[in-house]
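My hope is that you will study the protein record below before we discuss the fold together.
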Amino acid sequence: MEVKLGIIGAGRMGSVHAINAAKYTSAKIVAIADINKSAAESLAKQLGVKKIYSSYDNLIVDNEIDAVIITLPNNLHYDAIIKSIEAGKHVFCEKPLTVSVKEAEDITRKAEKADIKLQVGFNRRFDPSYEKAKEIIDQGLLGRIAHAHSNTYDPEPHSGWEGKEEISGGIFFTTCIHDFDLLNWLIGRKVKKVYAELRGTFGKDQSAVCLLAFENGAFATVKAYELCSYGHDVKTEVIGDKAAIRVEQKSSTHLEIFTKAGVQTDYPYWFKDRFKTAYIREIQEFISCILNDKNPRVNAYDGLNATKIAEAAKRSTMENRPILVE
């Protein structure tokens, strides 16, 4: 048996997921949809896909397709997901699930009622280092969790639709959303209160700091920055009363160069390099869940919980006060 996939969105992430999915003999990409015809044609040619749609509405109702991979601009996720659920398709949606809690709640209800597989693209959960950290935390080796920190730094500001808050939702939905989900997962408790601040230049928010208070008494900070001079950088630390654990940026060769100017390493410049393995494994998980009738490790509820934190953080910056998370 093979899962027949439709790719909705032939941009950067659509290409990453499509190329990874095409590696599995248990999956076949049968159609690609993108309003940008040349992008869809280019990816289709690369993967030997015959069907090309200019509208995802047409792809969704294609009876040959079992499941869709959605990598549209964030503000279009809700429409594409709901239509896919109504058509009986399994759904993999790149993060965030949506840009509003109301939409995320509706998706969660309808996905559960329709009994389809819905996975959200929080790829860091599939990174071996973070998986090991989760295993150690769940074993209780850290003791009672008191503090955690997680940051995501990018080498350059988001461009295109990702740089437009009315489309992407802003930095809390494009960048911090990864850290929100990661900390929820690692600590294993829900966030009850959020305080956040933004800074930026040229009228664009490029730096964010968030303070999260968890229901078990733990605190966490989340930081995001879009002008990191040395490249993409992700670090996470969880501190308990018995031990602490830290996951840092990996270099591909572990090479360090010591000069008068300082220490140089071959850090991956961009996120696609840093999380290459995780991207492969999350698509493998999606296909496996469909074939073996399993629930995805990262589901609609996880997407909803991360959206709640992102929305609260955004509201906190607007109202200049801590926001309770329902």
User: Anything to note?
Assistant: The CA atoms of residues 49 and 295 lie 28 Å apart.
